[in-house]
């Protein structure tokens, strides 16, 4: 059930299948502990997790995301627009729990080992934590939907992050009826997955022909 | 052996334990397939993986990283400098394989679903792939050492990435004698891990007292 490769293959970005039931507390604890166990540059552990369940906050965010959905829809031409119409981009209210993930670059002391040449390594650490959280959720029978139709300033204000903490993700997390075999964007005709060979190179990068 | 939580807990950032033996091809294939199975914004799959084994390229990168290690060391005061002296920051030559991971924002068509409001979501996808790769490597008995003491322009030139592809990581990957129980930065006195409670918030962010 919790075999790593099985979990990696079953993991889906979930929007339609949330049941709205609460997460068993022990499951949620394991999921958050897995996130906190991620690698981080200079052991800075620069993430924050805000658990949002307030119906008012969920509704505020849902409404903001609906507006951003329209912004994106307006940029598409006819056929792509029609395909996009069929795609659900969030399960904010249905899941009943949003986990807002933030990046705090002040974590880890004045000299973060491994960050002097590449400032974004701190941000990378936060995403490693998100992927751990996502896999653990999959193992627990929970769906995760990463919502990115939002403006960072809006989300910062919504959960009260100070100016130096950057919102990285809103994750809808909750029990699901099932995880689809085929990713939503593929089954609704938006994009298809490419073969591994297309992104593999030996010794040096070779452009695809 | 491959239980998800066990793998998440055993995963380490490895620098000292590489044996230099080659990776069984089937293991490497599973590791790369796990990376390619990561979530990506708008199903853009915007990653590239360059497998570097050439001794000349490994040595060029090792030498560059040694220079950047000195840049960082020069920024530290006496006590921190002495602690840092004991810490190994790479296993580039010893591992025998570098996997260079790139981010190609041109992947995924003209309109990447989920990226219009937050450009960095493409970069986040690449890091999800890295974390999948890291966990799969752990399950295969391989160590991974993420090296970030380098300048992106140097690495771009070294592996021939075009100007629009951003280097995100150099990963030293190879068989190891063991994975340490305690992370290197903790056992060599650089930093200690914090408890989960310090980064958890309910409904709204609350600063730590």
Total number of helical segments of chain A?
A: 8
- How many individual β-strands of chain A? 5
Strand content of chain A: 5-15%
Which architecture of chain A per CATH?
Answer: 3-Layer(aba) Sandwich
SSE string of chain A, helix = H, strand = E? HHEHHHEHEHEHE
Mean pLDDT of chain A: 97
Cross-sheet strand order for the largest sheet of chain A: 1-2-4-3
CATH superfamily of chain A: NADH Oxidase
SSE arrangement:
The structure is a homodimer.
Chain A: H1 4-10, H2 25-36, E1 47-52, H3 55-74, H4 78-85, H5 92-95, E2 98-103, H6 121-139, E3 142-147, H7 152-159, E4 166-175, H8 184-187, E5 200-202
Antiparallel strand pairs in A: 1-2, 2-4, 3-4
Helix pairs in contact in A: 1-6, 2-6
Primary descriptors:
homodimer; 209 residues; alpha+beta; NADH Oxidase; four-stranded antiparallel beta sheet; 39% helix
Write a structural description.
The structure is a homodimer of 209-residue chains. Helix content of chain A is 39%, strand content 15%. Chain A is an alpha+beta fold. In chain A, strands 1-2-4-3 form a four-stranded antiparallel beta sheet, with helices on both faces. In chain A, helix 1 packs across helix 6 (121-139) and helix 2 (25-36) runs antiparallel to helix 6 (121-139). The longest helix of chain A has 20 residues, at 55-74. The N and C termini of chain A lie far apart (40 Å). The model of chain A has no long low-confidence stretch (mean pLDDT 97).
């Amino acid at each position: 059930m919790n075999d790593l490769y099985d979990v990696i293959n079953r993991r889906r970005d979930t929007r339609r299948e949330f049941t709205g039931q609460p997460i068993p507390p022990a499951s949620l604890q394991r999921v958050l502990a897995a996130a906190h166990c991620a690698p981080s540059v200079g052991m800075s552990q620069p993430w924050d997790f805000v658990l949002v369940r307030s119906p008012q906050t969920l509704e505020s965010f849902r409404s903001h995301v609906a507006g951003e959905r329209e912004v994106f829809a307006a940029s598409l031409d006819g056929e792509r627009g029609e395909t996009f119409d069929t795609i659900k981009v969030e399960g904010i209210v249905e899941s009943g729990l949003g986990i807002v993930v933030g990046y705090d670059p002040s974590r880890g002391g004045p000299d973060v080992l491994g960050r002097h040449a590449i400032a974004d390594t701190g941000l990378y650490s936060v995403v490693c934590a998100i992927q751990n959280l996502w896999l653990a959720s999959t193992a627990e029978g929970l769906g995760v939907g990463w919502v990115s139709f939002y403006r960072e300033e809006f989300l910062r204000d919504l959960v009260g992050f100070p100016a130096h903490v950057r919102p990285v993700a809103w994750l809808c997390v909750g029990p699901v009826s099932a995880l689809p075999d085929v990713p939503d964007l593929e089954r609704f005709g938006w994009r298809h997955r490419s073969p591994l060979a297309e992104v593999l190179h030996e010794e040096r990068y070779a452009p695809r022909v």
